[in-house]
Amino acid sequence: MAEHRSMQRAALLDAARSLLSEGGTEALSFPALAERTGLARSSVYEYFRSRAAVVEELCEVDFPVWAAEVEAAMAVADGAEAKVEAYVRRQLALVGDRRHRAVVAISASELDAGAREKIRAAHGGLVAMIGAALAELGHAEPRLAAMLLQGVVDAAVRRIELGAAENPSAITDAAVAMVLRGVRG
Questions:
Q1: Which of 9, 109, 111, 113 is paired with 123 by a 20 to 30 Å CA distance?
Q2: Confidence of residue 108 (pLDDT cuts 50, 70, 90)
């Protein structure tokens, strides 16, 4: 029974990822989740009390995996500048990933305070990840520099998500160049 519930919950989360990546937060509804999974709408409520609960669980499940991929890219980079570049490039490479698209859609939505706090905490983990490299580069305020660097990454993510006139690799290269010039500053 527990295994069945776990599989159903995983199917609901996978359906939620698909809905978010296809249509943003407006597409994430219990009727849509029920339709995608073949469950009765009332059954969806047995797993999640609200749409915000689905969002919170997606953040808990997906963001650590995404952050681990960024951290792994940084771990194989040689030197502080290379770690900064890996941090930016890996995040932007993940833009097309369904997990990332879901997190971006979630971040842009109207959420309750609990869900927003989980997203903030997850992003805080990313910012903390790059702080050591920025300190090594001599930044007096590595946390502030990390937050500003993440702002460049977030702007590049939005540009890629919008399907901007530039191709994603040009956006990535521009973001990396801007960040590296700034961290050398």
A1: 9
A2: low
